[in-house]
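Researcher: Good morning. I'm working through a list of sequences from a screen, and I'd like to move beyond sequence-only analysis. For each chain I'm collecting a predicted structure so we can compare shapes side by side. This is the next one on the list. No need for commentary yet; just the structure.
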Amino acid sequence: MRAVLERGYERRLAATVDPSRAPRHVGVILDGNRRWAKASGFETRSGHQAGADKVLELTEWCEQVGVEVVTLWMLSTDNLTRPPAELEPLLAIIEDTVDRLARDGRWRVHPVGALDLLPSSTRCTVEEAAKATAGHTGLHVNVAVGYGGRREIADAVRSLLSEHAARGTTLEELVEVLDVEHIAEHLYTAGQPDPDLVIRTSGEQRLSGFLLWQSAHSEYYFCEAYWPDFRRVDFLRALRAYEQRERRYGS
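Model: Good morning. Structure tokens for this chain:
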């Protein structure tokens, strides 16, 4: 009976979401896998696997409501310092998830992060996924692996300086013309719309460095559920909350 009631509520909630007002770009901080595993009596690896399976569900939900871009924070630069006993299985799960996203055949996969920090196997997997799906026109899926917001900005500035050095631009000349758009053109998400909505699961209410530059005018939605427990109902609630807000863009 409870399942029937929940399905009915989900249908009613879905009917209240206006596809014409859906966010173009949704960023998601996939938080709570380890805590979910501990609370459920499972090993940490099981939590990461459950979270990976949820990723495939989320991409379907995003596609259904007309989201154009979704950025999934799968692994931070800080996570790379975890003990090998935890990090290696997590990287294997991430590789499998990225491969599954690519093999689906509908979505364009784009790596977002410092790929040079990743083990060669993981780096090759995300690069091959991007190459194999480059021509796809469906949902654009950014896989943030080895991602850190401060590192992204530093990389963007480094890339910008290298580009102008190659052109022969002097530092004085660059200072005269430099503006925010010049930096934005060198971010990992260059050419994409900034996230309209950022969702974080597990009850934590902070960004932890996620899309620091791009999220200046984003709306935030914090969900109590651990990521593996995140349901379509929770996603629809986030969309409804987004639609009900008056976006002021910093004013």
